[in-house]
Design goal:
Blueprint lengths: L7 E4 L6 H31 L6 H28 L7 E3 H34 L4 H4 L2 H27 L7 E2 L6 H5 L7 H35 L3 H31 L6 H11 L2 H13 L1 H15 L5
Parallel strand pairs: 1-3
Antiparallel strand pairs: 1-2
Length: about 300
Amino acid sequence: MNNVSVALLQLEGLKVSAAASVPAFVLLLLIYVFIMVSNLGLVLLISTERSLHQPMYLLFCNMSINDALGASAVVPRLLSDVLLPGSDRHISYVDCVVQAFCAHFHASTAHTVLMIMAFDRYVAICEPLRYAAIMTNTMLVSLSLSAWTASLLLVAVLLGLSVRLPRCRRIIFNPFCDNASLFKLSCESVLINNIYGLGYTVVLLGSSLGSVTLTYLRIAMVCLSSRNQALSRRALQTCASHLAVYIIMFVSGSIIIVLHRFPHLSDHRKLASIMFHVVPPAMNAVIYGLQIKAVREKIRLLFTKRNHRPLS
């Protein structure tokens, strides 16, 4: 099959027993619905509530939109395949490339968006008098575009290097398509892919971890030296949610990278790769949503109405 163009690929999908396929389908479906409703609901609320038209909340929208896209890139395909036997799980090569692009784009954008959110918190706490002058609408749009564009370019090159390779295999040994799955379809040398992939990972994770670490060290120094304890508490409260989201995302991604070094734990790595596109998107909306007073008020009113609904 050397140099043969394989248009239809066989996808491993989610490895579950026949008895567990229906519970897995229901669980994944419920999680996906929650991710979409919570994240898109948060975007809708921020868009329609004028009091929330502030840089911090508008930056939340970047993360929520990215989380909805990331979950949509992976979960629907898993749902469509989980009830099928492994031999019937097929995907076209073009669809596989698109899915791989969206999956990596989501992961990269999560890092870049959290980096600009850290910058926003830095300016708000360390330069409060200049915050309005620095975080203008123009700056907000520029930062958002730069976060999405940087991820787009990095991932486009990553996938472009894999798409250029001739293919001699047709089985994707992964729950969903990713870059590694694509270049493993080739029998040619993938040295360039490995070099760029390593550089891509080092640059993305290094710049993300470095910028967030330096930002929070500076914020901690300012809070510790400040005499305004109330201001310091508010600052730490707003930073806590961002830091929690970053830690969840970073740990989830790092687990996948570490498990790549242990081939005998491939099933654990595959499960971790699914969790990366499910757990952070579900948790982010909850963490950020509960931080916004307007969201808490709407949730409180919703439960209050239900509890005081008259019995018929």
